[in-house]
């Protein structure tokens, strides 16, 4: 009895040791999921959030064998994000059977959608974080960067690093994304591309849609325009949107 109690106490302390930073914004359900995930993936430590957006936060996690993961936690969303999810999933044949019920199911749908999109990108050889696991509202993927320090976003590069070679690589990844993975990013910009070792990584694909989505072409044009605008602003000569589109298998 006393031994059992002590073991329980020890286990509780161990679970708390998992978290290198106390984050009061993690709800108790997510907290328990993180503990289960740690057992499953041999995670030794979760570190403080490296980013907190409207709908998700990213935490670095370190495994017992020294591998870093990026853990993306989707949290309870607003009415606006519910509308956004519906907009992106309605019309996508892969999600025609998804019926949205509770808020928890809703955010879990976002996590699963991003995971599935990352799998498609990975299988198509697109440069993006390798998906590791999805559990409830938590997505685990390869960490882009080193020793828990994330790589810079395209937006954060110095002038010299923003060159024509990088522009071509970004357009190359976009081409693979469309022609091989059959996905349109839908929110591509200097904020959703990380650069590590002069190589771009496409991130944040929860809202990416299949080429069959009714808005696919419109979203694709906007993605290309965003990329062109960013590089043009940094005095790189860019290709015409039409010329890029002509190489893409989308009508
Ligand atoms: P949001 O919906 O909040 O924009 P993102 O997926 O864009 O979510 O991630 C937010 C930030 O977290 C990114 O800008 C980047 O700095 C960091 N990040 C995202 N994915 C990774 C990753 N795999 N490795 C390292 N850092 C990442
Ligand atoms: Mn983002």
Automatic annotation (TrEMBL):
Gene3D superfamilies: Phosphorylase Kinase, domain 1 (3.30.200.20), Transferase(Phosphotransferase) domain 1 (1.10.510.10). Residues 44-251 form the Protein kinase domain. It catalyses: L-seryl-[protein] + ATP = O-phospho-L-seryl-[protein] + ADP + H(+); L-threonyl-[protein] + ATP = O-phospho-L-threonyl-[protein] + ADP + H(+). Signal peptide: none annotated. The keyword ATP-binding applies. Its EC number is 2.7.11.1. GO terms for molecular function: ATP binding; metal ion binding; protein serine/threonine kinase activity. Keywords: ATP-binding, Kinase, Magnesium, Metal-binding, Nucleotide-binding, Serine/threonine-protein kinase, Transferase. Coiled coil: none annotated. Belongs to the protein kinase superfamily. RIO-type Ser/Thr kinase family. This is non-specific serine/threonine protein kinase. It comes from Stygiolobus caldivivus. The lineage of its organism: Archaea, Thermoproteota, Thermoprotei, Sulfolobales, Sulfolobaceae.
